[in-house]
Amino acid sequence: MKVKLGVSNRHVHLSMDDYKILFGDVALEKERDLVQPGQFASKQKVALKTAKNIISNVRVLGPFRPYTQVEISKTDSFTLGINPPVRSSGDLEESAEITIVGPNGEITKKCCIIPTRHIHINKEEREKYGLVSVEKVKVKINSEKKTILEDVYINESPNFVLELHLDTDDGNASLAKTGDEVEIII
Amino acid sequence: MKVKLGVSNRHVHLSMDDYKILFGDVALEKERDLVQPGQFASKQKVALKTAKNIISNVRVLGPFRPYTQVEISKTDSFTLGINPPVRSSGDLEESAEITIVGPNGEITKKCCIIPTRHIHINKEEREKYGLVSVEKVKVKINSEKKTILEDVYINESPNFVLELHLDTDDGNASLAKTGDEVEIII
To answer: Quick one: pLDDT at residue B186?
Structure first.
């Protein structure tokens, strides 16, 4: 089984309330659609700030979510001097505190995670590929630095399309990039 | 078989001639010994410069070598906008051009690589572990993001001690860090 890869750079999901604090009356504008239906990269950017450092030009993804969530890599976590847990999207309990800085204001909250390796899939594709009772799989990257990534979680939703999401650490370590077709090992 | 891991951040090896261009009459001073006998982290730092960007505070390792070599990660290569090959130490043919900036001057040359995953070993240890005719092995990292790293090259020299070297991309992707004991799969 092969799946198309998307490497996710650090990014931010915002609740509408938090967005208003950060951006005021500026609308959230679409820059381009992402592979997952309805999801988009916006034109809006924030900075991520900690006591140790700041990372600028971090993209806000849309649409708004019920919760605000910052997703960074382990490499970013060393830059910022924080220790976020590896988590699935939305699982923010005991996540790391971070300050998000926008042009209109800033917010500080425990909302920063390192995202798990995961595969977006819908029910039909999950049945087709025999993954109904499978919680996680492995992914084999064939490159000059061949790598098998374990602990890749299956993330099912009716409006998802089949796509593997890795963060930039996994992508760069294995020399894999967005658009690559990679092998799933069940 | 278990081996101790050292995660190597970006660093520079210098020839004595290139060192003099960069640092003038300042001596190369030891900051601390590395695990491999005779190798040390110096107090001296340089910047790495390209048309796109600059990375500061990059450590010079000692002692001097017959050749100047810059070792960075794939993540660094995106920051700098260059495309260095994955190479063993000393194999600099068609490596990427980079400018090294010191307090006394700068040099620009084709000397930048992404280092291969490799294991330092001496002849006795290689025989002991049954690796005499083995060119490369796999490494299993047991963490929250379990990972099998293939293409890990065996690098034998009489004065080496057993140690696995990974770059920061491999270390951060698999949540492995210097000092971890990791499993070798032959």
So the answer is: 85
The tens digit of pLDDT for each residue in A1-29 reads 999 999 999 999 999 999 999 999 999 99
Which positions ≥6 away from A10 have C-beta within 8 Å? A48, A55, A58, A59, A70, A71, A72, A73, A76, A168
Domain boundaries defined on chain A? 10-115, 118-185
The confidence score (pLDDT) of residue A150 equals 98
CA distance B68 to chain A (A): 24
Chain centre to alpha carbon of residue B1:
23
Q: What angle do CA A54, A56, A58 make, to 5 degrees?
A: 120
Which chain A residues contact residue B73 at CB under 8 A? 172
- Residues B14, B98 contacting (CB under 8 angstroms): no
Mean pLDDT of chain B: 97
Give the chain A residue nearest B137 (alpha carbons). A146
Contacts of A86 in chain B (CB under 8 A): 144-145, 175
pTM of the model: 0.95
Residues of B in Cβ contact (< 8 Å) with A74:
172-173, 175
